[in-house]
Design brief:
Layout lengths: L1 H46 L13 H8 L2 H12 L8 H11 L9 H14 L5
Helix pairs in contact: 1-5, 2-3, 3-4
Length: 129
């Protein structure tokens, strides 16, 4: 009687572990498919010249307000990206410094780098390949 119950628990654990592994695999597959779709979309947009160029952005007060909300947040974002600078106390001082530093750009990852990042994330969650 006890052995049957232990066998049942063991089988349930094994089945649960297999479902857990399959769930991780499915998440990775779905994420990879979405990354491929996004990569294709970016390529199509780039081919159609629909991507805004960061060099064409006009770095003015309205740009920073739209992106960061206020001067304090803009300074904090640039401090995080470029380190300690003399950003000044006014918008004009900050904008002058920001123009010399350029627009804080988000790094784009290749498809392989994104897949590796997802795999590493899954490993941190406990998935064993």
């Amino acid at each position: 009687m006890v052995l049957n119950e232990l066998k049942q628990i063991s089988n349930d654990l094994r089945d649960s572990a297999e479902r857990y592994d399959n769930a991780f695999k499915n998440v990775a597959l779905i994420a990879a498919e979405e990354l491929v779709k996004e990569k294709r979309k970016i390529k199509i947009d780039a081919d159609n010249n629909q991507l805004p160029s960061t060099s064409s952005l006009d770095l003015d007060k309205q740009h920073f307000i739209a992106k960061y909300g206020n001067l304090k947040n803009a300074k904090a974002a640039y401090l995080k990206k470029y380190g300690k600078q003399k950003y000044g106390r006014s918008w004009s001082d900050f904008i002058a410094v920001a123009r010399t530093l350029g627009v804080a750009k988000q790094q784009t990852l290749t498809l392989e780098e994104r897949i590796t990042k997802i795999e590493n994330f899954l490993v941190t969650l406990g998935y064993q390949p």
